[in-house]
Amino acid sequence: MLVLITYDVSTISDGGKKRLRRVAKKCEDFGVRVQNSVFECIVDAAQLKSLEIELEELIDPAVDSLRFYKLGNNHKYKVKHIGAKQSLDVEGPLIF
Amino acid sequence: MLVLITYDVSTISDGGKKRLRRVAKKCEDFGVRVQNSVFECIVDAAQLKSLEIELEELIDPAVDSLRFYKLGNNHKYKVKHIGAKQSLDVEGPLIF
């Protein structure tokens, strides 16, 4: 299923930039960055659970936040992009 | 239905900060800010169309982007929040 992950990491707090890099890196293992703090990941339920736990360990819950939105499998008609940097179709064929 | 709106506005480009303020202000008219660049809005199809058009006019499509994710009506079980600043339930009663 498609899961949208959005995050706010407080880069003005101690170690914030490091946490931000780590959160982005972890999300990159599972999906595509579509905006600065927004990733679209194709995961099954077990992967999602594991990803939630790993990301939770990377953030400072007092100042940072993570949100997970389950968009299901029939998601092609649920997403609209306007403007710069159109995302890849994470499930489509890669054509160069 | 619940629509998630995420945006990247390039604040280093000319007029970027102004565009960012305007985009946030417009989104505030329809929903709740849950993260810095993430809003959850309860809109019907006509309101969504109108919001898309209005937001598109506020951004610079060469450097900024907007994404709209339709989460439908049965969205309570699709969203998980971890960490700081839990959002309001935009459809629930306001209890102070």
Automatic annotation (TrEMBL), chains A, B:
Keyword field contains Mitochondrion: no
Pfam families named in the record: CRISPR_Cas2
Cross-referenced CDD domains: Cas2_I_II_III (cd09725)
Keywords: Antiviral defense, Endonuclease, Hydrolase, Magnesium, Metal-binding, Nuclease
Binding residue positions for Mg(2+): D8
EC number: 3.1.-.-
Domain of life: Bacteria
Top EC class for this record: hydrolase
Cofactor(s) for this UniProt protein: Mg(2+)
One function term, GO molecular function aspect: endonuclease activity
Similarity remark: Belongs to the CRISPR-associated endoribonuclease Cas2 protein family.
Subunit structure: Homodimer, forms a heterotetramer with a Cas1 homodimer.
Purpose of the protein: CRISPR (clustered regularly interspaced short palindromic repeat), is an adaptive immune system that provides protection against mobile genetic elements (viruses, transposable elements and conjugative plasmids). CRISPR clusters contain sequences complementary to antecedent mobile elements and target invading nucleic acids. CRISPR clusters are transcribed and processed into CRISPR RNA (crRNA). Functions as a ssRNA-specific endoribonuclease. Involved in the integration of spacer DNA into the CRISPR cassette.
Protein name: CRISPR-associated endoribonuclease Cas2
Organism name: Sporosarcina soli
Gene label: cas2
